[in-house]
Specification:
Strand order of the largest sheet: 1-2-3-4-5-10
Oligomer: single chain
Number of domains: 2
Shape: globular
Radius of gyration: 20 Å
Amino acid sequence: MFRRIIDDFRTELRKPTIYFNFSGEPTLNKALPDMIAYATVHGHDTFVSTNATKLSEDMAERLIRAGLGRIALCMDGFSKEAQEAYRVGSQFAAVKANIELFCAAKQRLRAKNPITVLQTLLTSYSETQIDEIRHWAIQHGFDRIRFKTFSLGSHTSPEMRVAHSHFLPKDQSLRRHENARESVLCTSPLSQTVVFWSGDLGLCCIDYDQVVRLPNVMEHGFLTAYRSDEAARARRRGFARQFKICQSCSYSNADKLGFIVRLDPSGAA
C-alpha cells in the first residue's frame, strides 16, 4: 500500500512531505528505513518523530543512510524524575543514551541530514531545565530544540484535569492556554491527511478514532480517494470546524503550543 501511495505522485509536480508517525512508535517497524528510502528517491521530504525508547544503533544508521529529511527525538525533561513522571514505563538513561547514539551516528557518517530536532515537554518537572537541555543539545549537534507546552486536553473531564494539574509549569508563560476567542476556521484539513493501516483516509492528526469516515485508498489509489467529492466535502466542513472533534481539539483551540530554538554549532541560539 505504501509504495502505491508514493507511486501515485510520480507524475505530480508537487510532492507532499511524508510523516511516518501518527499515534504509534514508527521505529518499531523494521521496514521504516526502506520506506523512507523509497519516498526520498521519488522526491518526497520525510519526517519521523520518535520517543527513542527502542532506537538502536542499527536503526539509527539505516534511517540516516535512507536519506531521512528530518527527525524529532523526544525526551520529556532532562532528569529521571522529569522523564519518568510523565512517560510512565520509560527509562530516562536509556532514552538519553539512544538519542546520543543517533547523534553520534550522524556525525560518524558525516551526514548533513536528517535535520535533528530535540523535542521536549515543558512540565513542572522540566521547566527549570531549559538551559541544561539547550547546552546538551548544542553539545550533541542538534539543529533545533522544540519546547512543547503541556496540554490537559480541551475535552478532559474536570476530575482528570485536577488529577494531572501537577504537570503544569509554575511559570505561566510556559503554559498552553485556551484561546480567548474560539477559532472560526482551521487549516489543518486542507494541509494534511492521514492514511490508516486499513487504507482509510483520515481528516487530520486529531481524528485518532476515525470519527470522520472517508474513502479508502486501496481500490483506486490515494489521489482518487483524496480528490473525491466525499473527501472534499469533509475538508470543507473541517475547515469550518463543523465536526464534533473540532470542538475538543487541543490544537485549534489553544494558544502557545510551544516554541522552537534554532541552534548554531558555536553555541549561539
